[in-house]
TrEMBL record:
Keywords: Endonuclease, Hydrolase, Nuclease
Protein source organism: Nitrosomonas cryotolerans ATCC 49181
GO MF annotations in UniProt: endonuclease activity; nucleic acid binding
Protein's UniProt name: UPF0102 protein SAMN02743940_2580
UniProt keyword Cell wall biogenesis/degradation, yes or no: no
Length: 112
């Protein structure tokens, strides 16, 4: 399974939880955010991680402090382009298994 397929699984899962997709693969000079979604009035920045096994710590272990810092900077860049300042959070969707059959959704996974 490639990254795009993992993101499509995450989108479908989150849409079943009533989140609305706003942007996919938002890029700027600071980095990339996989998904930007809305959960009622909250803007949600979503990092999608796929791991076929937990041998190296699994998907959650791959979101290092450095990665979190890049995500925060990228989110600030996105927010700077908006006319308002919505409430926001950072979620992580962890997919594991050979076909992403196990999905774990961590809301408010990290922040400032």
């Amino acid at each position: 399974m490639n990254g795009n397929q993992a993101e499509q699984l995450a989108i479908a899962f989150l849409q079943r939880q009533n989140l609305i997709l706003l942007t996919q693969n938002y890029r700027c000079r600071f980095g990339e955010i996989d998904l930007i979604m809305r959960d009622k009035t909250i803007l949600v920045f979503v990092e999608v991680r796929m791991r076929s096994s937990d041998y190296f710590g699994g998907a959650a272990a791959s979101i290092t402090l450095s990665k979190q810092t890049r995500l925060l900077r990228t989110a600030r860049h996105y927010l700077a382009g908006l006319n308002n300042n919505p409430a926001c959070r950072f979620d992580v969707v962890l997919l594991s298994g050979s076909h992403g059959q196990k999905i774990e959704w961590i809301q408010n996974a990290f922040g400032e």
